[in-house]
Sequence to fold (429 residues):
Amino acid sequence: MKLTFLLLLFCATAPTAWGWSNHTVGSYLALQDLPALRDAPAVEVEALEQFLSQQYPAIVALLEEQEAFAREHFAHYPPRPDSLKMPATPSDNLRHDFLTALRINPEIHLAMVIQPLPGKDLPEREHLQADQVMVGQTLSPWNRQRFIVVAEYEKVAPLAVLASAADEPDYGHDINLFGDNPGEVAARYGFGPQPFGDARFQYSSQAPFHMGFFHESAVVYVAAGFLQRSWPDWRAYQYMGLARLAFASGHPYWGYRFLGWGLHHIQDLTQPYHAKPLPGVDLASLLLLEGKALAGFAGDKQASIERVATRHMEVEKYQSTWLRRVLREGQPHPMLDAYADVAQDKTYPPYSVDYLRGVVSAESVDDSAAFDEAIGQWLESAPATSDFSGGNQLHREDFNHPALNRQLLKLLGHFGAHSRIYVNAGLAP
Ligand SMILES: [Zn+2]
Fold:
């Protein structure tokens, strides 16, 4: 019981909307030289309803096939209630039927927008405010995102559609889906109670779809079974199937957009704080902390909880601020190379439905302790920047922290490689 409580608190504290902050920027950098994308013709923007009505029977069949597969394949998968099946004949609310059959939040805006690369803002184009794009305020406070409106039938670059869509699952897809969440679908989706996530954050209920703790010890799972109730791999699988169907049936705009949604979940798991509840804390230390708390010395436990949240948040801020500066300067830079470097791509196994769990998250777990330690050393050596509540301290940051940067560039290399591998799998004929 006590261990469960401890772990719950630990996970609860990790902010969940950030897996390398704005996924669009990283996706542009990782994918811009991919031949299958670079050489692809521009695609026409298409309303979701058009794709759904033209391919209705194929979509219904795919979702049934996916449900049967998911029940067989994904551990701790909560079966979809049959009442959520798309009706055999299309109703007059195609979008709602589709979103609820996928079990994503039916209130998402699905705005027709693209995000440009920072610095290529196209100021003459109409743009939307964040609250017109996302449900609630899920933007991380230091992101400066720009949403350019695209019109139906307008031709857009595949990379722009895909990279923009890679950020979209953080705009509300997975918010308030659990039985104990507020809202209309909570009672209908069959996900059960929310296993983890910090109620202080409006978007915390999306955590079990954007994080996955797949490589803990058996003792931890016995004490804290809720850690196994997370499904980012299932989301990546759902969207991969939809992308392939859309491409094969002549709807490339939705092909790229669905592929971007799935890509998001792959990218999230390249962030060690999304793959490990307590980076750098082994089981023995965990039990010791809990033992001390039980003996009346809860200070260490509270400090550890806060430490994990702080390191996750501050390293993402450091990285995104550094990247924005690099892009503004417009010069070659090792961070840009890390995103784009294809040298390691061939060393990974081919993409499969188990790739997120078996490859991406396993690699993140392996790197998590060293990453956490490097962040800790950086924060200690730079006390002036350790309190970000004011928001301005990073302006004085020189980003000259070799040990931390080495870890970061390595992880961003993984982000790039896994992004290309997932996208190539979705684009393969
Ligand atoms: Zn996410």
In short: The pocket of zinc ion is lined by residues 19, 169-170, 210, 264, 268 (CB under 6 Å).
